[in-house]
Amino acid sequence: MQFGIIGSGSWATALAKILTDNGNRIQWWMRNEESIAFMQKRRHNPHYLHGAYFDPSLLQLDSDIQKVVTDSEVLVIAVPSAFVEQTLAQIPPALLKGKKVVSAVKGILPSENELMNYYLAKHFDLPLTDYFTLLGPCHAEEVSAEKLSYLTFSGTELAVTSAIAAFFKTDYINTVVNNDVLGVQYAAVLKNIYALGAGIAHGLEYGDNFLSVYIANSANEMVGFLKKINEPDPCVPDTHNYSASVYLGDLLVTCYSLYSRNRTFGNMIGKGYSVRAAQLEMNMVAEGYNASKCIHLMNRQMQAEMPIASAIYEILWEQLPASEGFKKIETFLV
Q1: Do 250 and 183 meet the contact criterion of CB atoms below 8 Å apart?
Q2: pTM (2 decimals)?
Q3: Per the residue annotation, which of 17, 100, 106, 191 is the catalytic one?
Q4: Which carries the bigger pLDDT value, residue 311 or residue 231?
């Protein structure tokens, strides 16, 4: 399979490292010509994961996204959800015909408030059988350091999903396969919201005891939402294991890890930063911010019990003081 990567941030760079460490020659779209020139000369991304070095003979770098799409069989999309639509707008729909698309996006597309698979079906006529997800728990920084990590690949056809996953298995990456295409994506969205809340709690100087209770309740809230997604027909049982790494594991690491952007962003909010000030300070995207609004709007119809996510939405979008929001959350925890 010929892989193409769309994106140039830390997660895209980590995925490029995994593929090229396995000897795969990849197409790689970067929008910045200066970054491309730097990569060709210095062999690492000038802005992210400076410790990840590449063999230039395995990289076909290009700022022409249409060329990268044309020359690839499998496209790995790894850009923040807020920028997916403007990035994909550069691609004529016909170019995606017959391609496999692997989404490494960890959020909902905000303008249409929908998952990537729905967006691609609507605008590119991409069938769900050609759509796959690539999710954690996995931090780009630990991939760069080659610390053992796990990636979960989801798709409707397990044989094809397994074949794609095999290209990513290395000495420091183990791969897991499942068929819960919708559930794993919503879990990735929700864990960012709860991790942002974990950061707020830390900024407010709550301790580890409280945080453990908060995360346990967040996990329970997340499962309730996922069951509503996966059980539209009450006669069809939901058999997914929500204690698996792509659900509970990803929630835990995103809430606890110092690498977590969402935890870092939330910590600033808890310490009194405004949303805008925290965004400027980080200069990186915390997916949980937009996700909190998307899930809030979606849940108006879903009507899942989500008091924790709702309180975090109020803190971020309705100017509820963080301390007051967490006093509310305290009353929900069991």
Answers
A1: no
A2: 0.92
A3: 191
A4: 311
Q: Which two tokens stand for residue 27?
A: 């197409």
Positive or negative torsion for Cα 58, 131, 11, 258: negative
Placement of tokens 């690492």 in the chain: 44
Q: Specify whether 191 is catalytic.
A: yes
Question: What is the C-alpha to C-alpha distance for residues 32 and 34, in angstroms, rounded to an integer?
Answer: 5
Each residue's pLDDT tens digit, 278-309: 988 887 778 899 999 999 999 998 889 999 99
